[in-house]
Design goal:
Layout: E1 4-9, E2 13-19, E3 35-41, H1 43-54, E4 58-61, E5 63-65, H2 68-79, E6 88-90, E7 95-100, E8 105-110, H3 124-128, E9 130-136, H4 148-157, E10 161-165, H5 178-181, E11 187-188, H6 192-199, H7 204-214, E12 217-221, E13 227-231, E14 234-238, H8 251-264, H9 269-283, H10 296-310
Parallel strand pairs: 1-4, 1-9, 2-7, 5-6, 9-10, 10-11, 11-12
Antiparallel strand pairs: 2-3, 7-8, 12-13, 13-14
Helix pairs in contact: 1-8, 6-7, 8-9
The structure holds adenosine-5'-diphosphate and magnesium ion (MG).
Magnesium ion (MG) binds at residues 165, 167, 191, 252.
């Protein structure tokens, strides 16, 4: 087996997105959306999809629902060449319904198989066949969560580098073994709010320095302000790419894809950050987190245009 660049353990589901809904949504009324999209959702699957679109060799370990939603979701990954030989099967797919309004959005998730992946579903030898290990959506992995510190410890001792994007904690507890996981994480990829939650402070600068003492490379995604990183006590700022945003869903996962794709090629931190911003911005130019990355020609054209203006 050729060596995988990265093994990702995580969740898979479809996102159903209804655009153009009114700001206020009274009950018992027929409310019309102006557009609708079904896209591959879930942070882990979006990352797997977009990393493969960029050209990384990606192995994805997940639990898929035994229904048509599960089949559509895995087909989207297969189209991009994601390796799916270690997929476990469950009963009912999870689903996320996203209702973007003018400024805010509702995000409603039924977990289904999203939370059902178990430690025994994971082939540790397969993970060890990759160079790098990543997890996203930590707190959604309810069955796996108690075993995640052990999982990270094992892959680290097998010689892999590691990264983690916790995403949000729906219970807003920010515990569940995080303190035991972080010592095994090489790259932590939160957004601004998550960075403060993980560090247990409302002060962003304080959060940066606390996290920087725990993890070698901390990369904080700052939306339209780009990203900030702390590595071995040094601080790096990387500006966002100006773009007309169609949909911000999945921008953070796409940033992770760009950053990790360059990291896996041995690029320096500045290049990793620039590529993260490039992919985050590109993701916002189309629906959901993966639609933009399905059009290879448009992706290459966007990269050419913005990489050139970056130099
Ligand atoms: N309006 C925007 N303009 C340009 N780039 C953006 C914009 N919003 C997000 N991005 C890119 O996507 C990355 C992730 O977005 P962010 O909203 O911070 O993360 P998350 O989706 O995890 O909350 C940003 O760091 C940036 O590179
Ligand atoms: Mg995120």
């Amino acid at each position: 087996m050729s060596k995988l660049d990265i093994a990702i353990v995580g969740e898979i589901n479809l996102d159903l997105i209804l655009y153009g809904l009114p700001e206020q949504m009274p009950t018992e009324r027929e409310l019309l959306a102006s557009d609708f999209a079904v896209t591959l959702g879930s942070s882990s699957a979006i990352l797997a999809h977009n990393l493969a679109a960029l050209g990384s060799q990606v192995g994805f370990i997940t639990k898929v629902g035994g229904d048509s939603f599960g089949a559509i979701a895995t087909d989207r990954l297969r189209e991009r060449g994601v390796h799916l030989t270690r997929v476990a099967h469950g009963a009912k797919s999870g689903v996320t319904v996203i209702l973007p309004h003018e400024s805010q959005r509702h995000i409603l998730t039924y977990p289904g198989t999203i939370s059902e992946l178990r430690f025994k579903d994971i082939d540790l030898d397969y993970l060890a066949s990759a160079r790098h290990f990543h997890m996203s959506s930590l707190f959604l992995q309810r069955e796996l969560l108690p075993h995640v510190p052990e999982l990270f410890r094992r892959v680290k001792s097998a010689g892999l580098t590691t990264s983690l994007d916790t995403n949000d904690d729906p219970e807003d507890r920010w515990k569940d073994g995080l303190a035991k996981i972080l010592p095994h994480v090489d790259i932590l990829l939160p957004n601004e709010r998550e960075a403060m939650k993980i560090a247990g402070t409302n002060d962003f600068e304080n959060a940066l320095s606390r996290l920087g003492q725990k993890v070698k490379t901390v990369v904080v995604k700052m939306g339209a302000s780009g990203a900030i990183a702390i590595q071995d006590g040094r601080r790096f700022n990387a500006e966002a790419i100006p773009v007309k945003v169609v949909d911000p869903v999945g921008a953070g996962d796409s940033f992770d894809a760009g950053f990790l794709h360059q990291f896996l090629r041995g690029a320096d931190l500045e290049k990793c950050l620039a590529y993260g911003n490039l992919c985050g911005a590109f993701s916002t130019t189309d629906c959901g987190g993966t639609e933009a990355f399905r059009d290879r020609a448009r992706m290459q054209e966007f990269f050419r245009r913005h990489e050139a203006s970056n130099q």
